[in-house]
Automatic annotation (TrEMBL), chains A, B:
Database matches in PROSITE patterns: HTH_TETR_2
Pfam families, per the entry: TetR_N (PF00440)
Name of the protein in question: TetR/AcrR family transcriptional regulator
Listed GO MF terms: DNA-binding transcription factor activity; transcription cis-regulatory region binding
DNA-binding is among the record's keywords: yes
Annotated segments matching region Disordered: 1-25
Domain HTH tetR-type: 23-83
Taxonomic source organism: Streptomyces xanthii
Keywords: DNA-binding
Binding region for DNA: 46-65
The keyword DNA-binding belongs to this UniProt entry's keyword annotation: yes
Ranges annotated as biased composition (Low complexity): 1-17
Xref: InterPro entries: Homeodomain-like_sf (IPR009057), HTH-type_TetR-like_transc_reg (IPR050109), HTH_TetR (IPR001647)
């Protein structure tokens, strides 16, 4: 594909092309898993459907992810990591912007995919424990980052619960978004609660 | 069944037994629909499954609810009405109790059933519009009751958004409850947010 410059050739020598391809395939499968879950829900998202969406053979997909549960928990973990990376890149100008960024985490196709996985997990014992463990880990990470973005002092009584409640509110706003586009309402709620949280955190 | 007293005989004459039975069957179907949705999700909840759960023939079920969408939107509407009735029966001692009662609306099997319906509706066009309409109606009713229970003065700037954000938080807490029983965490968040809302509403 195109001309290989000496620099690219060196970097390709350091990372074998086969490993590169394998990593790209894995990433494509995870992105397709998220897209399928968000668009078709759990019952419509089999490994075959995801492999086809990713343009990968079923065998190659199973080489990366032996079971459907492996594929989808890895997909949500991947989503969570992408969201953390995106959040880390933010340097909010103030608490209002920090609150808006946190709420944004819970809307869009990434949250939608996670929601489908949670609902499916609540009825699928093989999936339940893994998703609960993953959700606990993701939740702790989101909390840690929220504390940092908001500059919250958790030694103050109530500060921890204020931040937790804010993340719960963000999750509830994401759920409301699932059915109808209520961006205008969401903005008003977020603006008011940014003021309230700012005051509560001192 | 048993001895019919004169009083009962009179009331049965006023309301024909056939209509009574029909109403009881309808109610049993709606309760079974909620139970099936909460336990098995949308894909596992067909009209046949619900009819069997209710101990009703498939034909009788279809007499009441011609389509699957009819049955499940009626079920969520029934749930919403039951919740409204329960809320109306509450006379909270203060705002903290009001907040706790509102949050309770969003946990338990009723919310769980509604959540399954929402997620299914986001992927099923026939269901989507009806559920969005229903959700809008239920949401407005929940808001109206929250304003009343909290004694909020919506003419004050920000009061409306404060109440809305609280209901979004309750929804988010309900979603967190889906995967793991975090009753202790929930109680701490609710206690802190009750204080915050009390102050914000003045």
């Amino acid at each position: 594909m195109g001309v290989v410059t000496p620099r690219a050739a060196t970097s390709r020598a350091a990372t074998p092309p086969k490993q590169d391809r394998s990593r790209a395939t894995r990433r494509r499968l995870l992105e397709s898993a998220v897209a399928c879950l968000a668009e078709r829900g759990w019952s419509g998202s089999t490994v075959s459907v995801v492999a086809e969406h990713a343009g990968v053979s079923r065998g190659a997909a199973q080489h990366h992810f032996p079971t459907r549960e492996d594929l989808f928990t890895a997909a949500v973990e991947y989503v969570a990591e992408e969201r953390s990376t995106a959040l880390r890149a933010i340097t909010p100008a103030g608490r209002a912007e920090a609150v808006a960024s946190l709420v944004d985490l819970y809307t869009g196709p990434l949250f939608r995919a996670a929601l489908h996985l949670w609902v499916a997990a609540s009825n699928e014992p093989q999936l339940g424990d893994r998703v609960a463990e993953l959700e606990g880990r993701v939740g702790r990470e989101a909390h840690r980052m929220a504390v940092e973005l908001l500059g919250a002092d958790e030694s103050r009584p109530g500060a921890r619960e204020t931040v937790q409640g804010l993340l719960d509110m963000a999750r509830g706003l994401g759920l409301a978004t699932l059915l109808r586009d209520d961006g205008a309402r969401r903005e008003r709620v977020v603006a008011q609660w940014a003021r309230i949280v700012d005051e509560a955190l001192g």
